[in-house]
Specification:
about 40% helix; 10 strands; alpha/beta; 4-stranded mixed beta sheet
C-alpha cells in the first residue's frame, strides 16, 4: 500500500487547470497546422491562421486560449494500492480546481442551482469526476476544461440494433451538421457506442481525451472513424462555419458491450481549443 497526500493531488490539479487553459497540446496544435495545408478555401485558411496565432499568443502572454475556461472534467484511474491521506479524493480535486482557477485568473463558469437562482459558485467547482479502480499504486488524472458552447451540442440517441452502422453514421453526421458553427469548428467529435443511456454519454466524453488523430485500436472502428470524418468534412461547413474543407479535425469512437435490444449512441463535441492534460502521481 502506498500513501499519497491529498495535498499532492490538490497541487497537481491546480497546475493542470492552469496549463490546460493556456497551452494547447501538441496533438491539437499539430492537427490545426496540418489542417491549414489541407484547407482549400481561402477564407477557411485565413480563419485557421487566426486560430493558430491565437494559441501562440496565449502561450506567449500566459493567458487563456479561450475566455470560456470550461467545466472542470476529470477521468481518474485510482490504483487499488493507493491510500489517500489527509483528505478524500473528491475534496482534493475540487480544492485543486479552486486553487488553479483562482491563481490562474481563469473565468469561473459554474452556477450552483441549474434552474432557478443560478448563483455562481465563485471558484469553478464542483468538478465532474469519473473514477476507475485499477491495479497498481499510481493515480492517473486526466483533465479537460469543457466549454459550454461545444457541450451544448451534445446528444444521446437510443438506436435500434437493426439501425446498424448506417443508422449510427446518419445520427452522428446529421447531428454534427445541425450543430454547424455553434461549437467553434474545426471540432473534435467524440462518439460513444453501446452500454446504457448514461454510460454511452460518458464514452463520448472519454473519447475526447484521446490524443487528437490517434485511431481506435480496433481496425473496424478506426475505419469507421475515418469514414465519419470524411462525411463530416464533406458537409462544407469549414473553420468557424465560414465554409471550407476542414469542419472537423478528428472523430474518436469509444465502445462498450450492448444489451441485445439496444444500440445506444452519443455525440460529444470539442471546439478547436480541444484542451486536455494528463498527470500520473
Amino acid at each position: 500500500m502506498r500513501d499519497l497526500a491529498a495535498s499532492t493531488v490538490t497541487e497537481t490539479v491546480a497546475e493542470m487547470c492552469k496549463e490546460a487553459n493556456i497551452y494547447l497540446g501538441d496533438d491539437v496544435s499539430g492537427a490545426l497546422r496540418r489542417s491549414l495545408e489541407e484547407e482549400e478555401s481561402p477564407t477557411g485558411q485565413e480563419v485557421l491562421k487566426q486560430l493558430i496565432a491565437n494559441l501562440e499568443i496565449a502561450a506567449k502572454e500566459q493567458i487563456p486560449i479561450c475566455q470560456d475556461t470550461g467545466f472542470a472534467v476529470f477521468f481518474v484511474e485510482v490504483g487499488q494500492e493507493v491510500h489517500l491521506t489527509g483528505g478524500g479524493l473528491t475534496e482534493a480535486i475540487n480544492a485543486g480546481v479552486k486553487k488553479g482557477y483562482t491563481e490562474g485568473y481563469l473565468r469561473k463558469s459554474i452556477v450552483d442551482d441549474p434552474l432557478y437562482d443560478r448563483k455562481n459558485t465563485g471558484d469553478n467547482t464542483p468538478a465532474v469526476i469519473y473514477t476507475d479502480i485499477v491495479p497498481g499504486d499510481k493515480l492517473k488524472i486526466s483533465f479537460a476544461p469543457k466549454g459550454g458552447g461545444s457541450e451544448n451540442m451534445s446528444a444521446v440517441k437510443m438506436l435500434k440494433p437493426a439501425d446498424g452502422e448506417e443508422g449510427l453514421i446518419d445520427f452522428v453526421v446529421n447531428h454534427v451538421k445541425l450543430a454547424g458553427p455553434n461549437p467553434c469548428p474545426p471540432i473534435v467529435v467524440g462518439v460513444g457506442i453501446g452500454g446504457t443511456f448514461d454510460r454511452v454519454a460518458v464514452l463520448a466524453k472519454k473519447a475526447l481525451f484521446r490524443p487528437v488523430g490517434q485511431p481506435h485500436s480496433d481496425i473496424k472502428f478506426a475505419d469507421l472513424e475515418k469514414r465519419i470524418l470524411k462525411k463530416i468534412n464533406d458537409l462544407g461547413v469549414g473553420p468557424q462555419g465560414f465554409g471550407g474543407r476542414i469542419f472537423a479535425l478528428a472523430v474518436h469512437i469509444e465502445t462498450f458491450p450492448s444489451h441485445i435490444a439496444s444500440l445506444a449512441a452519443a455525440v460529444n463535441i470539442n471546439c478547436h481549443a480541444s484542451r486536455h492534460v494528463e498527470r500520473i502521481i
